[in-house]
Specification:
The complex is a heterodimer of chains A (431) and B (249). Chain A is mainly β. Chain A has helices at residues 255-259, 306-311, and strands at residues 4-9, 15-20, 24-30, 44-51, 56-58, 63-65, 71-74, 82-87, 92-105, 129-145, 155-158, 164-168, 172-177, 180-189, 202-207, 214-219, 224-228, 240-242, 263-266, 272-276, 280-285, 294-297, 321-323, 328-329, 334-335, 340-344, 349-354, 360-364, 381-382, 392-393, 405-408, 414-418, 423-427. In chain A, a hairpin with a 5-residue loop joins strand 27 and strand 28 (360-364). Chain B has helices at residues 2-7, 13-21, 23-46, 56-76, 84-87, 106-110, 119-126, 131-150, 161-178, 181-187, 198-209, 223-248. The chains are: A mainly beta (431), B mainly alpha (249).
């Protein structure tokens, strides 16, 4: 129940939300920067915890519906309260998180503890006033979007109009209005008439960051389709199809499985999108459909181990990926918007790729190997052959320690990395 | 044949070395591995019977892999049809039992199943490239992938399928019985020879495949009692459903 299943910064980066397998959402808040201590930015502390989803039972199919939170997406802040969407396999909920730091005191008809006074004992009247109290953070569900998905929801994405959002399951994508819970529009449906003919499923979907009628969805066959909602109500015909031709020299029985895309993310500009498949991260230019513009190998040393990874089911692990958010120059990495991409791997390793310098680094999220406030040491994995000092052999990797979820602060060089049960927050070293 | 053996890179280190050393050696090794991959895939698909809905993406990918293997085997001519005299089961249209795969639809459950994919392994070791069976294999291979997928992800089946679970597992055993002893041993190397026992087989599988949701399977106590359990279960579920409706209104 403690297994972290999603991690997401809000738009300002002040809040960091995590969802877990037990249906809980935990939100961390960044401390206000301490002006005297310029060495570190504010730390993240627990701000709010609430139970978002409960396990349910589908009576019609005799199946449990897991309460695991698959995705969290923040809405941009419009007033004092914060809003986020969280989803499990079947139901999406809109949560309002608000602060209360004052409470009314001095009622005429009620005692402070809430008991009602006998009206005959009231001799004078007073006006209740607000008095400060200890900060209380309350989370309340404002909308519940249910009963629209037969299959398991894998993605939610808020449109740039901030009024609508999409939810995608294995075979369908629905469009919702944030205010309306009893209706949703189906915009993509790839369910074949005969389920026996099913060979491809939807694995991820996202709205374009700027164009409110454009979205993409990825498939288990390694394709990405870009659709325009202005073209037709049901976007079964894509506007663009992104697919890289298969490399015949690498062909194996596992080719299709490892080509399945586990995550798709637009760059902030919307010009590029990034996809993650089992072994690599690819950057696509939206103007070029026939191949990616860049490919980064995450853990190529696993290519010769695919059979074992198939046997222990690790080959089906769905890794996510993310872009950096910053716009500044920093030593070692040139840190402009969309110039670094990050993704997770096994053995609690995660990888970063600098698109400009083409440098990459492997880091480890573990308490044993990294003391707090020390610089992370780069790691290196070697093949089954000769092992140099400090290198880790591929055979000694722990495949139960996987980093599937990572997130990058939108404005600063702070990253959140989730191992199975723990959340790590790293920041770059400031001089 | 040699070229194909070199091109394929799906297997781990030591098998590769074995393959490149002697071209002739590569082919049987490759075919045995392909066979075990097929077996593994079918077992993975079998273990979809659980309390939580199986992952559709995973099922689709595994089924596609199985189909790929079958297509290749068909081209190789190693995909043998069942020998009708040995088991007495007639239909040549079904290469693989659809009921073996998870959540078979009611209609498919009622049809005759032909658990025969075990026999061709034996046949292959005898001879390669039987032309006589090739036409038959090609004709039925078109059927096979479809049937294979047919029941893998019938998500919209009514809950009677829970009652079919026991029947399906019986059929799994039948199929496995037909296999040659060697491959069965390979498959169940972690399980003792009482693989006819439902519990042992399932727990053996689970440790092998490390599937997180298999805990639900352990609630099925024994083959004999499962049938009645599932009937009770469906009755109880109906009752719950009715109560829920009443409560909500």
């Amino acid at each position: 129940a403690d297994i972290i299943s999603t991690v997401e910064f809000n738009h300002s980066g002040e809040l960091l939300a995590t969802g877990d397998k037990g249906g809980r959402v935990v939100i961390f808040q960044q401390e206000q920067e301490n002006k005297t201590q310029s060495h570190s930015r504010g730390e993240y502390n627990v701000y709010s915890t609430f139970q978002s989803h409960e396990p349910e039972f589908d009576y019609l199919k005799s199946l449990e519906i897991e309460e695991k939170i698959n995705k969290i997406r923040w809405l941009p802040q419009k007033n004092a309260a914060q809003f986020l969407l969280s989803t499990n396999d079947k139901t999406i909920k809109l949560w309002k998180i608000s602060e209360r730091d004052k409470r009314p005191e001095g009622y005429n008809l009620k005692e402070e503890d809430g008991r009602y006074r006998d009206p005959t004992t009231v001799t004078t009247l007073r006006v209740p006033v607000f008095r400060p109290m200890d900060l209380m953070v309350e989370a309340s569900p404002r909308r519940i979007f249910a009963n629209a998905h037969t299959y398991h929801i894998n993605s939610i994405s808020i449109n740039s109009d901030y009024e609508t959002y999409l939810s995608a399951d294995d075979l369908r994508i629905n469009l919702w209005h944030l205010e309306i819970t009893d209706r949703s529009f189906n915009i993509v449906d790839i369910k074949p008439a005969n389920m026996e003919e099913l060979t491809e499923v939807i694995t991820a979907a996202e709205f374009h960051p700027n164009s409110c009628s454009t979205f993409v969805y990825s498939s288990s066959k390694g394709t990405i389709r870009l659709c325009d909602m202005r073209a037709s109500a049901l976007c079964d015909r894509h506007s663009k199809l992104f697919e890289e031709p298969e490399d015949p020299s690498n062909r194996s029985f596992f080719s299709e499985i490892i080509s399945s895309i586990s995550d798709v993310k637009f760059s902030h500009s919307g010009r590029y999108m990034m996809t993650r498949d089992y072994l690599s991260v690819k950057i696509w230019d939206l103007n070029m459909e026939n191949r990616p513009v860049e490919t980064y190998q995450v853990h190529e040393y696993l290519r010769s181990k695919l059979c074992s990874l198939y046997e222990n089911d690790c080959i089906f692990d769905k890794f996510e990926c993310c872009w950096n958010g910053l716009d500044r120059q920093v030593e070692f990495f040139s840190v402009f918007h969309g110039s670094i991409v990050m993704t997770g791997s096994y053995n609690n390793f995660f990888r970063m790729f600098d698109r400009n310098s083409k440098r990459d680094v492997t880091l480890e999220a573990s308490r044993e190997n990294n003391k707090p406030r020390t610089v992370l040491k780069p790691r290196k994995v070697c093949g089954s052959g000769k092992r140099k000092k400090d290198e880790i052999s591929v055979d000694s990797l722990d495949f139960n320690k996987k980093i599937l979820h990572t997130a990058w602060h939108p404005k600063e060089n702070i990253i959140a990395v989730a191992t199975t049960n723990n959340l790590y927050i790293f920041q770059d070293k400031m001089n | 044949m040699f070229v194909r053996g070199l091109k394929r890179k799906c297997f781990d280190g030591e098998e590769d070395i074995e393959g490149t050393l002697a071209g002739i050696k590569a082919i049987p090794s490759y075919n045995l591995q392909r066979q075990s991959l097929l077996d593994m895939s079918l077992v993975k698909l079998q273990l979809c019977h659980m309390l939580v809905e199986p992952n559709l993406c995973r099922s689709v990918l595994i089924a596609n892999t199985v189909r790929q293997i079958q297509e290749e085997m068909t081209q190789d001519g190693t995909w043998q049809m069942i020998n009708t005299q040995s088991t007495g089961q007639a239909s040549l249209d079904r290469l693989v039992s659809t009921d073996i795969l998870c959540r078979s639809s009611r209609e498919q459950a009622e049809e005759k199943l032909v658990p025969n994919y075990g026999t061709f392994n034996k046949d292959f070791e005898g001879d390669q490239g039987q032309d006589s069976s090739e036409t038959m294999s090609t004709a039925s291979s078109v059927q096979a992938p479809r049937n294979l997928q047919g029941s893998v992800w019938e998500m919209e089946n009514p809950q009677e399928n829970k009652g079919n679970f026991q029947k399906s597992l019986d059929q799994i055993f039948e199929t496995l019985e037909n296999k040659s002893p060697n491959s069965v041993e390979d498959l169940f190397s972690e399980v003792d020879n009482s693989y006819y026992d439902l519990d042992t087989m399932l727990t053996g599988m689970m440790s092998n495949t490390k599937m997180g949701h298999c805990d639900g399977l352990e609630t099925f106590s024994s083959p004999t009692s499962t049938a009645s359990n599932s009937n009770c279960k469906s009755d109880l579920n109906e009752l719950d459903h009715i109560v829920e409706i009443l409560v909500e209104s």
